[in-house]
Amino acid sequence: MTPDALLVIFAGVFGLLVGSFSNVLIWRLPRRENIAFPPSHCPNCDHRLGVSDLVPVFSWLALGGKCRYCRAPINRRYPVVELLTGLGYATIAGLFPPLTVGWGALGLMLLFTLLLVSSAIDLDTYTIPDELTLPGVALALGFGFLNGRAGAEGLPDFAGAVNGALLGAGLLVAINQFGSWVLRRFRERLYPEFPIGYQQISLGLLAGAWLGPWWGAGVGLLSAGLNLALRRVIRVPEALTLGGLLLTLVLGSAGMGPGMILMVQGALAAAGAVSLVAGLYWWLQREPEAEEDSAHTTVDDRYDASAMGFGDVKLAAVIGAFLGWERLLVALVVAVFAGAILGLLQLALKRENRVKFGPYLAVGAVVALLWGQGWIEGYRTMLGL
């Protein structure tokens, strides 16, 4: 048996163990429980589980899907998550051999776990915890550094991971900004956040189009600093920022400014940077007992229409950082089509589609991971690039 084949088997077994821990995260993170203490126990009778109760998949089968101590049913999701993780890790090890890809293979396995756990929590609670996404972005940047120069598998280096994270967050937040503006019928937000929030993100969009990503992000963060210094919110009208960006793109298409492509890239990257800083600030300032919507509930989310949850924005940053901006675009296209198809099916069945965008985005990311590079190369060949 070859070393690569042995690593595939090892990765599958390792994935089963990680899947067991993933179930702990899925249960405890939404409830703000410590993920290490107390040790694993039955959620119904609180009896501590023994080693024989914790063998991935086999314990569930041996116990007939019921707790050994109180005979309460054990959710079928437990073995499903373990099996999916084991299969996912083995597939990644087969397609991205660790002996060839190096640390990048382990990074992709981590991404798979983040996507699976985020989707399960989103389906249960309509939230994506910051405890997964924000550290996930940092870890992705670390793996980008370990990747060095991007190899044949198209995994990003550190610069590519930074660019993917910023463009991922920026693209989703731009969709949210304009979608929310339309939902509010182009009225201003009633309750802008202090000191940093959607107003600073919109300002970053406009400034980034003209000044580039870093100066654009600096303008957005300078606005937040001014709010802090004055201890009140200095309103930045969306008619100026979002309306100004639309005008900017019209001017860019006419040949003015840095050019359309650079303007779009600068706007999205700047908005993505401000979004991640805002997300980190909201996470650190969050009260332990506060209730959240999709990864974070702000005053704006409760009183002003929002097109999507902010957790989706940070999840897109994770995907972009791990896979790079090109595969991120593939993931987004697949997610949109998957969401549209399921939405039409539920409409035909007269069922309400309450699934958040996060699971669709996760499915798109897995598709992009497995087949995205081939699609990208095919597209380049078709265009003669």
TrEMBL record:
Location relative to the cell: Cell membrane
Annotated Prepilin peptidase A24 N-terminal domain residues: 13-93
Keywords: Cell membrane, Membrane, Transmembrane, Transmembrane helix
Annotated Prepilin type IV endopeptidase peptidase domain residues: 109-224, 235-344
Membrane topology, record value: Multi-pass membrane protein
Pfam families: A24_N_bact, Peptidase_A24
Chief location: membrane
GO molecular function: aspartic-type endopeptidase activity
Regions that span the bilayer: 6-27, 78-96, 102-121, 133-152, 158-183, 203-230, 236-254, 261-284, 328-345, 357-376
Family classification: Belongs to the peptidase A24 family.
Protein name in the entry: Prepilin peptidase
